[in-house]
């Protein structure tokens, strides 16, 4: 009898949603950050674009030749906006963008004694934008 009720619970979990809201609370883990150097900027949907633009300006004033911007999901628009504003203010910088998919992991915490701890994996779109200073080499044609 316990096995059939267990099967019932599992079938209800993924019927309409990715988890059963009656038996679990969803706790989202922080996304992975592949690079931690000073010239890397992570943009979220709550990021202050003006503050990030000032950070880019400081990096450029320190003669940084390449700045990498990472953004995911709904923050991709903010990341693109930031990159375009930097290139508008600093004409010597060019943009190179790469798209990817990032696997995110969430924790399902039980709210009842019947449920167990579990994890939920999902995918999210990501964008890596590289801002780099193009070398202005003037060739002498003689």
Q: List the uncertain runs.
A: 7-16
User: What kind of sheet is the major sheet?
Assistant: 5 strands, mixed
Q: Summarize the amount of helix as a percent range.
A: 25-40%
- DSSP summary: helix tally: 3
Q: Strand order of the main beta sheet, please? A: 1-4-5-3-2
What is the count of β-strands?
5
SSE arrangement, N to C: HEEHEHEE
| Alpha carbon gap, first and last residue | 91 Å
The overall pLDDT, averaged over residues, is: 85
Shape: elongated
Report strand %.
35-45%
Structural class: alpha+beta
Looking at this protein, list some descriptive labels:
35% strand; alpha+beta; five-stranded mixed β-sheet; elongated; single chain; 142 residues
List the helices and strands and how they pair.
Blueprint lengths: L1 H12 L10 E5 L11 E4 L5 H13 L4 E7 L3 H14 L3 E18 L7 E16 L9
Parallel strand pairs: 2-3
Antiparallel strand pairs: 1-4, 3-5, 4-5
Q: How would you describe this structure to a colleague?
A:
With 142 residues, this protein is α+β, with helices and mostly antiparallel strands. The protein has three helices and five strands. A hairpin with a 7-residue loop joins strand 4 (93-110) and strand 5 (118-133). Helix 2 crosses helix 3 (76-89). It is elongated, with a radius of gyration of 22 Å. The protein starts with a helix and ends in a 9-residue tail after the last strand.
